[in-house]
TrEMBL record:
Signal peptide interval: 1-21
Record-given protein name: Outer membrane protein beta-barrel domain-containing protein
UniProt keyword list: Signal
Length: 272
């Protein structure tokens, strides 16, 4: 998975040069003010599907007051608000998004138990990140009318709300039957031959705790499609989550409070 994302990022970094050479910038698509997109993410945190995202973008405008006289001798004025910045900021957008990620430890490795289920030996907790983020988007070059390709640079920041839920293990105790509990490092050594699988996700989330931190993201997005009001594309870049304390994902001493990864998101949406 990590190699796939790295190869994709290299390809994406090379693609803009050839795309820019083939598609004339002067043939720009028609104007739009708002855009929304849903995305499915792969990342080097691990897993085929590492998360999901919802993003909303709005054109950047300045606002100013417009004062108009209602008559030379009336002494009355009318104040309205107007928008400026269409020309100066035609390639700049505000961006609001929320992302859901599953953060894994680099040393996680699944193994099958004697029942055929998969477990991660040494894992102590699951870490899920909820990331409401605010940022800016800059259009590097606009979508050509006929060929339909656009590249944006996106920078986002916001809180990272970490949901830490215990990784519950089911094992067969010779004296007490099947027991479900959170394992320590020693438990994995003592009961490795008796492990049946993992406990339910619902039971794990019912015992979850919360840790708060900061999230940062920088990426390039490539939008494709022939329909002017719908978009599909890919977004690739780097994400980072820094928490106020270390999260014990593994029952070892090499846990951390800073998690960084490369990601690749496939998205679709619309604009108006």
């Amino acid at each position: 998975m990590k190699k796939l994302i790295i190869i994709s990022l290299i390809f994406i970094c090379i693609t803009p040069l050839s795309v820019f050479a083939q598609f004339p910038v002067e043939e720009e698509d028609e104007y739009y003010e708002k855009e929304w997109a849903l995305g499915i993410m792969m990342n080097t945190y691990g897993g085929t599907i590492g998360g999901a995202s919802v993003r909303f973008s709005k054109k950047f405008f300045y606002e100013h007051k417009i004062t108009e006289s209602l008559g030379r001798n009336s002494g009355k004025t009318k104040v309205t608000r107007g928008r400026v910045g269409e020309i100066e900021n035609e390639r700049k957008y505000h961006s609001l998004s929320i992302e859901f990620l599953n953060i894994k430890h680099p040393k996680e490795e699944k193994r099958q138990t004697y029942t055929g289920e998969s477990v991660v030996p040494g894992k102590k907790n699951r870490l899920y990140a909820i990331r409401p983020m605010f940022g800016k988007e800059w259009i590097v070059f606009k979508k050509a009318r006929k060929q339909g390709v656009q590249m944006n640079f996106i920078a986002n920041a916001g809180p990272s709300i970490g949901i830490v839920s215990p990784y519950l293990i089911k094992y067969k105790d010779p004296a007490r039957g099947v027991i479900t509990k959170q394992f320590t490092k020693q438990d994995f050594l003592d009961y490795s031959d008796f492990i049946e699988g993992t406990g339910s996700l619902g039971e794990s989330l019912s015992k979850a705790s919360v840790v708060v931190g900061l999230a940062l993201k920088a990426s390039l997005s490539f939008e494709f499609g022939v329909n002017k009001r719908s978009i599909t594309g890919i977004e690739a870049g780097i994400i980072a989550d820094a928490y106020a304390q270390k999260v014990e994902i593994m029952a070892t001493d090499d846990n951390r409070n800073l998690h960084m990864a490369m990601f690749l998101t496939f998205f679709f949406g619309g604009r108006k």
